[in-house]
Design brief:
Elements lengths: L5 H12 L6 E4 L9 H16 L3 E6 L9 H14 L8 E2 L4 H13 L3 E4 L3 H8 L16 H12 L9 E4 L14 E5 L13 E3 L1 H12 L3 E5 L6 H11 L8 E5 L11 H9 L14 H7 L3 H11 L10 H15 L1 E3 L1 E2 L2 E6 L7 E7 L9 E7 L1 E5 L19 E4 L4 E9 L5 E8 L17 E2 L1 E3 L4 E8 L25 E9 L11 E4 L3 E5 L8 E8 L3 H5 L1
Parallel strand pairs: 1-2, 2-3, 8-9, 10-23, 12-18, 16-19, 21-25
Antiparallel strand pairs: 4-5, 5-6, 6-7, 11-22, 12-15, 13-14, 15-20, 16-17, 17-18, 21-22, 23-24, 24-25
Helix pairs in contact: 2-11, 7-8, 11-12
This protein binds one RNA strand through α5, β6, α7, α12 and β19.
Length: about 550
RNA sequence: UGGCCCAUGGUGUAACUGGCAACACGUUUGAUUUUGGUUCAAAAGAGUCCAGGUUCGAGCCCUGGUGGGCCAACCA
């Protein structure tokens, strides 16, 4: 039997008992930044629940704070969700679409004597709210008449009062141990343009007054959010108790633990800092744990949803291993990425027994995991580059690559024997003189020579060049936010990006398209970055290949 | 001196109305391999935070602790 997460258990019970007839979820981002991997999980959760139970999922922007929100974020968020492969029901929705209705809800509460306009200052309200361990004090404005409150709210709406001079509050319980029930603020005055409603409003609802009612208006059945909203649930329900039509679908808020990843952060506030303080090049910098960053890094969308699924959903605080995400990335790319050869740190190889105008095209498979992908022709000559790490002068016994007097297979080509090591004055190896073993051609090898290793190569006469950007973990400690006395930025990994300005790539790579993923044989998965130009290709390393040799050494 | 929530290998999740703690990642070992990749096979690693209780039987139920998270923006 397939195991269910706790939300699915709840849903299935409700479905069985008839408490709910269908499942309608929503993903409710605030357009004040880019989406990160934690949001990817929430998106996956909401949309897959909708799909699994044959319901639907809305995309609704929670845009109730004009000071923070911008339409460029709306666009970026839509792009990311679509890229992940999810389709929201109908058109994109906005909490701001419901401002008129929300305003009526506010009037309804006033008429029920459950809300009042408070003239107290911010500081006074804060002080009267008290602290969790002892009751707060009631506002002197708490007992205004319904008529006065209605009038005052209307005048707040029409712009008669200054920002901060008045708020609308719910009349609940100033002594509640739950701070959110101590007469929470419903509306505040903000005289600032809104990304969608422009100057139409100068009062804006608070999150608590907007979210649940928006869910209710849309007929959402399950309003899934993260744990920090757990304490808001009594308020969520209180509004519904007083405003919802009992004959209509009543949304239920369910909280789950947000996803965290080690060696990085998933807090919008800190991601914003990374961008604004210039620690990265933007929200879509490949080092960022944002969906856009991961896309640019070369992580496939399917790897992100696979990761979300494998991590699972529960209520306990958790920090997932980056290695699981990387596993998902490799898993997907292994099946889809074309294999090509690129030398990142070259050492020249001259094949002495081939003459200078020798040229040959050799067929090399595009992807052994997908035989139908066929092969391509790769030029071979007497001048090659191999990886510096594929040669060792004093090699240990288990070193399977090239060494003086040793042999190695050039992938898809010939076996070569290392005859001579050429060094410069400072002792650095600049060239290897090798000889090609007769009859050792790949696929028709009758030489009888046994090799332990196969290495990649490019023809120095035919190859192109490119820049490679190699990424490492963003932060150099596992839990960057753990030490609250220190600034997270202190823990940034100074080596989180290394740029190799010239790598040597096989000619076929000249036709790579931006966003196209490749496996650089024996190195890792790379994607062509959008910074590339027609005369300069730039590849991002999504993730290296697993390396059993490196691990042991 | 408050309230709400959580606690299962290193990590993340399972264990449906109590019934031999399972899966994945990671780690280690071996085999295969013209990628030290992939694939395949295997191993190590928790007795379920602690103490009581109920029960033939508790990771699951009850009580009390302990530890952790969240709550005092006119943010979401």
């Amino acid at each position: 039997m397939e195991s269910l997460n706790f939300i699915e258990h709840i849903i299935e019970e409700e479905l069985k008992s008839g408490k709910v007839k269908e499942v309608i979820t929503r993903f409710p981002p605030e357009p004040n930044g880019y989406l990160h991997i934690g949001h990817a999980q929430s998106i996956w959760l909401n949309f897959s629940l909708g799909k699994k139970y044959k319901g639907k999922t809305n995309l609704r922007f929670d845009d109730t704070n004009p000071l923070a929100e911008e339409s460029r974020f709306v666009e970026a968020i839509k792009r990311d969700i679509a890229w992940l492969g999810f389709e929201w029901e109908g058109s994109v929705l906005f909490a701001s679409d419901y401002f008129p209705q929300l305003y009526e809800f506010a009037q309804t509460l006033i008429k029920k004597d459950l809300a009042y306009v408070d003239d107290s200052t911010l500081e006074e309200i804060r002080r009267m709210r008290g602290v969790p361990t002892s009751p707060g004090d009631e506002s002197p404005f708490r007992n205004r008449s319904v008529e006065e409150n209605l009038d005052l709210l209307e005048r707040m709406k029409s712009g008669e009062f200054e920002e901060g001079s008045k708020v609308l509050r719910a009349k609940i319980d100033m002594s509640s141990p739950n701070m959110h029930l101590r007469d929470p603020i419903l509306y505040r005055i903000i005289k600032s343009g809104h990304h969608r409603t422009g100057e139409a409003w100068c009062i804006y609802p608070m999150y608590d007054f907007a979210h649940g009612q928006s869910d209710y208006i849309e007929g959402i059945t399950h309003s899934i959010c993260t744990l920090e909203f757990e304490i808001h649930r009594p308020l969520y329900d209180w509004f519904l108790d007083h405003l919802a039509d009992p004959s209509k679908v009543r949304p239920r808020q369910i909280e789950f633990a947000r996803l965290n990843l080690n060696y990085t952060i998933t807090s919008k506030r800190n991601l914003k800092r990374l961008v604004e303080e210039g620690h990265v090049d933007g929200w879509d910098d490949p080092r960022m744990p944002t969906i856009s960053g991961m896309r640019r890094r070369g992580y496939p969308a399917s790897a992100l949803t696979m990761f979300a699924e494998k991590v699972g959903v529960a209520k306990r605080e958790n920090v997932s291993d980056m290695s699981l995400l990387e596993f998902c990335v490799r898993e997907k790319l292994n099946k889809s990425a074309t294999r090509v050869m690129a030398v990142l740190d070259p050492i020249k190889v001259e094949i002495s027994n081939l003459d200078d105008n020798y040229a040959e095209e050799l067929p090399i498979e595009n992807n052994p995991e997908a035989p139908e992908s066929g092969s391509r022709m790769v030029p071979f000559s007497n001048q090659l580059y191999i990886e510096r790490s594929d040669f060792m002068e004093d090699a240990p016994k288990k070193y399977f690559r090239l060494k003086p007097g040793g042999v190695v297979r050039l992938k898809g080509a010939y076996i070569i024997h290392c005859d001579e090591v050429i060094k410069n004055e400072s002792g650095k190896i600049i060239k290897l003189k090798c000889s090609q073993i007769a009859n050792s051609k790949s696929g028709s090898d009758t030489s009888g020579v046994k090799v332990k290793g196969t290495i990649h190569w490019v023809s120095a006469k035919h190859c192109g060049t490119a820049e490679a950007r190699i990424y490492d973990r963003l932060f150099n400690i596992e839990y960057p936010l753990k030490d609250k006395d220190k600034d997270v930025m202190e823990f940034l990994n100074p080596d989180n990006l290394s740029i190799i300005d010239t790598i040597y790539i096989e000619p076929s790579l000249r036709f790579a398209k931006v966003g196209e993923s490749f496996q650089f044989l024996r190195k890792g998965y790379f994607v062509l970055d959008s910074d590339s130009t027609s005369d300069k290709l730039i590849f991002n390393q999504a993730v290296s290949l697993r390396d059993g040799w490196a691990k042991k050494n």
